[in-house]
Every structure is written in C-alpha cells, then in structure tokens.
Amino acid sequence: MLVRLLWKPLPESWLPVAPQRSTGLRGLIAWIQEMAAGAPQGDDVERRVRRGAMQAIVREAFQQTVAEQDSEHRGPAAFADAWKARLAALLSQESVEVSGWADITIAELDTDLGWSLYAAASRARSETIARANATPSRRRGTDDAPTVSFEFSIAADGDGSLGRVQYAICEPCGVGLLKKISFSPEWHCCGFGSLALRELETRHSGLTWYTSGQYAHAKGFYARYRQGSDSPWTAKQHPCPHF
C-alpha cells in the first residue's frame, strides 16, 4: 500500500481525506482503486507533473526517516511524527532537491495534497502494522535428517510479505536454530521481530533456541527478548551436532 501511495502515479481525482466509510486497510485500498478507476480523462501533463513533484517530496521525507531507523530505532508512532516533521521541514523551504527531479519550487505546488498524501500513507503504514500476522510454516529445500528446515513470512492484507523468517529444528536434540530473519528497512522497529520469535516458540514448543552467528549485531534485541520469554533462548552459538 505504501508503494501504491508513494511510488505509483496519483489519480487526478485524489481526495484530501479518505471517506469515513473506508475503514481499515482493505477500505483504504478499495478507496484508492475507486479513485484510480474514476479518474477524469482531461488530466493534463502540467497537473500530473505537479502531483508527481509533491508525491516525490512526501516520498523523500519518508525515505529520510527510514534512513534514520538504524540509529533512532523509532516505533510506529515516533516514526510517523518524525516523518511529519521531515515533511514540514521540506515544505518550509523555497525549493527542494529530490533525486530524479530538477529543483522543485514549493510555491508552485499544492501543499494540501502533500499533507493529505502523508495522512493516507501514514494511516496505511499504521494499518499494515496492526494487521500483520505470520503465515503458516512451509518446508524449505531437502531435509538432512534429523533436522528439518522451514520458513514463514510476516504479511498483511494488501501488502504481501513484509519480511521472512528461516529456521530449522532438530526434535531428537530439542533444538531450534533461527537461521535468518529479515525485514526491509521501512518495517524495522515495528514489533515484527518479536512477533516472529513468539511464533517460533508457539509452533515448536519446548525447544532450546539458537541464533546464527550473523546476528551478532542484534545481540541487544535478542538479549531483551530472552528476558521476557518463557522459552529458553541461549546466547551460545553452537547448537547440536546435527546442524
């Protein structure tokens, strides 16, 4: 949904505020689709360029905020506030330089459109986070008995996969190994990592869980999670010899 709002061309029939009847992520998706289907045919190049320029500024503010996540670790509400502040700072300038565009003159644009786009995109991100859930586990590749490899995704309606989890278990030794957990930067600090680990614990209860050595940079996250988990997550890096 974020891709649709921030990267796809906006229809001329873009409305300042989403109708109240469009509740939830599915309602917002349906509203966007209705607008695109009902777009007037008289849209001219100049109006499309102005809409695209404003969209590029909102997108630039979003990408700048995403780039700060590794150092700021903002949760969803703080991220939305930081994105809004970034957008306000860009719109307060006389002109803005955005990759792929010549200097964009703010006075020539409809800033109300920018704020309505921010509101819709921020709402879509929030709805996606709230509705995200784990898909069923599916086997991966060829099993090397007694270990079995699996993967699942964290996904939300209308947005497909937001991230992927790959892991393996050895039931005879009572061991689980988290091989890889990955989310694109725009979904960092949204609680998906904790959701994924809880799913592992629920789906394969009673195992002692290990993480692969590539997660040394995320020691803080795993240490915090272990403190609140009823399942044994070990800081050791050597699971059973079957792996």
* Radius of gyration computed on alpha carbons: 22 Å
Q: Would you tell me the overall average pLDDT?
A: 84
Total count of helical runs of at least 4 residues: 8
Number of strands: 8
Q: What is the end-to-end distance?
A: 39 Å
Shape: elongated
The poorly predicted ranges are 16-22
% residues in beta strands: 15-25%
Helix and strand succession?
HHHHHEEHEEEEEHEH
Secondary structure category: alpha+beta
What is the number of domains?
Answer: 2
Largest sheet geometry? 6 strands, mixed
The proportion of residues forming helix, as a percent range, comes to 40-55%
Question: What does this protein structure show overall?
Answer:
- This protein is an alpha+beta fold and 243 residues long.
- It has 2 domains: 2-131, no CATH class; 134-227, Aminopeptidase (3-Layer(aba) Sandwich), CATH 3.40.630.30.
- It is 43% helix and 17% strand.
- The chain contains 8 helices and 8 strands; from the N terminus they run αααααββαβββββαβα.
- It has helices at 2-6, 24-37, 45-67, 69-72, 76-91, 111-131, 192-203, 219-227, and strands spanning 95-96, 104-105, 133-134, 138-139, 147-156, 160-170, 175-183, 208-211.
- Strands 3, 4, 5, 6, 7 and 8 form a 6-stranded mixed β-sheet that branches. Strands 1-2 form a two-stranded antiparallel ribbon.
- Helix 3 (45-67) packs across helix 5 (76-91), helix 3 (45-67) crosses helix 6 and helix 5 (76-91) runs antiparallel to helix 6 (111-131).
- The longest helix is centred in the first third of the chain and has 23 residues, at 45-67.
- The protein is elongated and about 70 Å long.
- The two termini are 39 Å apart.
- Mean pLDDT is 84; it is low at 16-22.
